[in-house]
Design a protein that fits this description.
The complex is a heterodimer of chains A (26) and B (206). With 26 residues, chain A is mainly α. Chain A contains 1 helix and no strands. Chain B has 11 helices and 4 strands; from the N terminus they run ααβααβααβααβααα. Chain B has helices at residues 8-20, 25-39, 50-58, 66-75, 85-93, 101-112, 122-135, 142-156, 166-175, 191-194, 196-201; strands at residues 48-49, 82-83, 120-121, 163-164. Classes of the chains: A mainly alpha (26), B mainly alpha (206).
């Protein structure tokens, strides 16, 4: 469960869709 | 001595991209190897299609994800439905460890401005939080989501007009630098290390 004190953008930044390092995985 | 093995047009493009991005000629060549791999994973036509982008990110070509869609749309500068090599290099350049931080902040602003109105609106923040919850194991009540969104808007929307403009976004990121952590890919500083097989074949010296 996410803490309700969390900043919304902190939560959003955890999306797998924003993790471009996957592009470099072989 | 520039001995890029592709045709003259591609060689010219590589030199041009190196001149206008954070990458060296060698690094742009390494990115070309990556681009070739990604752009031929489903349809071998020299462009990265949405499905190929999703396959690279999620190991699943039909995985729907709001944020991956937004990243794809921003990379697809010409808005023709595919990512071309130049668009790929220029966009990835923003993720370079030495790229200007202002460019990273602006990119994320555009990413989160879902409707491209020039503002990140309250409803957009809520939509993105719900999308994130939907894709993850995090679970929150409707009240908790409202609370997180409202608190964030209160913190970020300094003018109190219900939307975050670019100046407010810059100030908010300055207070919370972790928000642009995703915008730096350490790989990009040592891209030739990430593709050692390519370097062995390259005759280019920077």
């Amino acid at each position: 469960v996410a803490p309700v004190t969390m900043n919304a953008f902190e939560l959003i930044s955890k999306s797998q869709g924003l993790n471009l390092s996957s592009l470099f995985e072989k | 001595c520039f001995c890029f093995k592709k045709n003259a047009k591609t060689a010219k493009l590589v030199l041009f991209l190196a001149s206008e991005t954070a990458f060296t000629v060698n690094e742009v060549e390494a990115l070309y190897e990556l681009f070739k791999k990604l752009s031929s994973s489903i349809i071998n036509d020299g462009f990265i299609h949405k499905e190929e982008f999703q396959l690279a990110l999620f190991q699943n070509s039909s995985m729907q994800n709001l944020f991956a869609d937004r990243v794809f749309d921003l990379f697809d500068v010409k808005r023709n439905g595919v990512i071309e090599f130049g668009e790929f290099v220029r966009s990835l350049s923003i993720f370079h460890p030495e790229a200007p931080i202002e460019d990273k902040i602006a990119f994320v602003f555009r990413l989160y401005d879902l409707q491209q109105t020039g503002y990140i609106e309250c409803e957009e923040v809520k939509k993105m939080v719900l999308a994130l919850l939907n894709e993850s194991d995090l679970s929150l009540s409707d009240e908790a989501v409202e609370s997180i969104v409202n608190k964030t808007m209160m913190d970020a929307d300094a003018k109190g007009d219900g939307k975050i403009d670019e100046a407010e976004w810059k100030e908010f990121v300055a207070k919370h630098p972790s928000l642009i952590k995703n915008m730096t890919l350490p790989y990009l500083k040592d891209i030739t290390m990430a593709f050692p097989s390519f370097v062995l074949n390259s005759e280019v010296q920077d």
